[in-house]
Amino acid sequence: MFDPRDLRLPVVQAPLAGGPATPELVAAVSGAGGLGFLAAGYRTADEVAARIAQVRAGTTEPFGINVFVPRPIPDPAGADRYRAELAAEAERYGVALPDPDPTDTDDWDAKLRLLLDDPVPVVSFTFGPPPPWVVDALLAVGTYVVATVTTRAEARGAAALGVSALCVQGPEAGGHRGTFDPAADPDPTPLLPLLGAVRAVTHLPLIAAGGLATGRDVAGALAAGAVAAQAGTAYLRAPEAGTSAPYRAALADPAFTTTVVTRAFTGRPARGLRNRFIDAHDATAPAAYPLLHQLTRPLRAAAAAAADPHGLSLWAGTGHRHATAAPAADTTRALATG
């Protein structure tokens, strides 16, 4: 079975749901000696299966799949109010807003069947603890199981399920925070103290995540007790990444100076470059994932088509200024040379 302590380079590429984590990116990172991750989030099981096949065609090294755990929607009524608020955005971009689907589980059952029928080396979970039977079933087919945690209490609960390792995600991370409670405000404890707090309650291997963008960052995470460091934003400008052109441009644009945590695009807390959309809607966005993700999807697609970064969810961690356009293998090696 895979073990992150056996990686040639102690670097994990974050799953980067929504398009950036292409099979080519995953294969490049794994081929360089790190661990590449495909994102199952926002894709059907059939799409995930096709992308797994592409990764296998590109590398014989281990890789992982990240799966979102469905959770209750704290404020579904809030999505209706938010839909009315977004009418002006729909007019701005010339699109129609969909009717949100509260039954959406991101094809959870079908993805689990896929991963049990055609096992991959590593499966990680975000947004909550996987059910105990899922952990047991994946372990039984030889898959290494990772749970994403953001607090010591979450770590203790996930460890009790028998997972193989924990991905400890600090508040510096770009994109969604993996908090178990979708209504809760994310824990503000910085990554390095959080690693120490988690290490105090479990001896499981820890993968550190959160704003890690340089070799020095990675070295600090390893010194704090992690066996590997997970980086996402560092890969967004890589030629292998599926990052859209306006998103790439914004990451290098000195006009975007700040990252903030917001529910404005999806209803779950996520860190991204501060832009017009966040300024306009952050204060009123309800805790209603995935309904807000569904509502803003056509707006984001239209903004991308118009090359308008101010209508995009520009997910980025606190170390985003260090992201370069270097090939993914070079970035992986650079992160490992701290």
Automatic annotation (TrEMBL):
Which metal ions or organic cofactors does this protein require, according to UniProt? FMN
Reading the lineage from the top rank, the first entry is: Bacteria
What keywords sit in the KW lines?
Detoxification, Flavoprotein, FMN, Monooxygenase, Oxidoreductase
Tell me the Pfam families matching this sequence: NMO
GO:BP terms for this protein?
response to toxic substance
Catalytic activity as recorded in UniProt? 3 propionate 3-nitronate + 3 O2 + H2O = 3 3-oxopropanoate + 2 nitrate + nitrite + H2O2 + 3 H(+)
Any one GO MF term held by the record is:
nitronate monooxygenase activity
Family, per entry: Belongs to the nitronate monooxygenase family. NMO class I subfamily.
Tell me the protein's name: Propionate 3-nitronate monooxygenase
In its UniProt entry, the species of origin is given as Streptomyces hainanensis
